[in-house]
Amino acid sequence: MERGTGPVLATERYGSSESWKYIAKDGVMERKRDGPESESRGNSVVGVFKSVFLPQGYPDSVSRDYLHYQFWDTVQAFSSSLTGTLATQASLKGVGVGNKEATVAAATVTWLLRDGTGMLGRILFAWQKGSKLDSEAKKWRLFADVLNDIAMFMEILAPYFPPFFTLIVCTAGIFKSIVGVAGGATRAALTVHQARRDNMADISAKDGSQETLVNLAGLLVSLVLIPLVTDNPVLTLSLFFLFTTLHLFANYKAVRSVVMETFNEERLSIVFQQYLRDKQVLSPQEANLREPVFIEFRKTVPIKLGVRLQEVILSLDELELALKQNNMPYLLGVKNGM
């Protein structure tokens, strides 16, 4: 007990390095920061940083893999910002910026075609793959970033192929629209995983603040790079491949650091196979480490939930057979051996 103070009635700490104590003094309860004054001043600076860029209550309010994932996500966002600058410069050059012979109308048409094809691509991709983005968030997150790098590479090369410039940038626009859908949807799924106190909105907002800070840093670095790479295709491509390598590596480390605590088809299969092999139940950490994070373009057994009855039952005899000694509120069907 400190001299001149009463007993400590309570202490409080909420996801921060700072802690406070309540002291009874002269019949009044006083609130005082715990620890030396110099340490308190240092903690106040750290506390401000945490309150601006980290969710309230960190680290108790987020999943254990939050910091590891956000670190690598920050690295990939920074490198992506720099490659995006190189791609934007190439696109502007391709539509005629700095070229006296280029017309405003031609540049506008090219830009509108790129945006229009991108919108169509966004709708079609969401229609075809929207239901897969939740359960396979890590795969599609990594796929989106790889596709984004491909799109930016196409934009950088487009000015060197004038006859095909519009076709190339429109294709890149479709790829980027897919990236927007897949990246946004999988980020939402990861936010659900990271939230531990129904604080999805706070995590999403702080992720936006972190990304804004990274993009600001990327902007400052880009101001230095642009004069160096202008009219220097060799340096442009060299920097692009350097930043892209860093971008892909950081993305791989980011998705590998995520430890999902629920089953999807891949993790369930991994756990079942291990259990059938040696009766061992894998922990979430072990199952996630074995889960593939790259999209596999191979034929798989289609599993459909909630299908119409006529897709499973084709006759009254089959219906009677399916309902025989079946007290469950659902039916399981195998069609064509699958």
Can you tag this structure with a few keywords?
mainly alpha; 338 residues; RUS_fam; 61% helix; 3-stranded antiparallel β-sheet; transmembrane helix; 3 strands; UVB_sens_RUS_dom; Growth Hormone, Chain: A
Set out the fold topology.
Layout (H helix, E strand, L loop, with lengths): L7 E5 L7 E6 L2 E6 L3 H17 L12 H29 L9 H26 L7 H21 L7 H30 L5 H30 L3 H25 L7 H14 L5 H7 L25 H8 L15
Antiparallel strand pairs: 1-2, 2-3
Helix pairs in contact: 2-4, 2-6, 2-7, 3-5, 4-5, 4-7
What does this structure look like?
It is a single chain. The chain is mostly helical and 338 residues long. Among the domains are: 1-39, no CATH class; 66-257, MFS general substrate transporter like domains (Growth Hormone, Chain: A, Up-down Bundle). Helix content is 61%, strand content 5%. The chain is built from 10 helices and 3 strands. The chain has a 3-stranded antiparallel sheet, with no helix packed on it. Helix 2 packs across helix 6 and helix 2 (66-94) runs antiparallel to helix 7. The longest helix has 30 residues, at 165-194. The N and C termini lie far apart (72 Å).
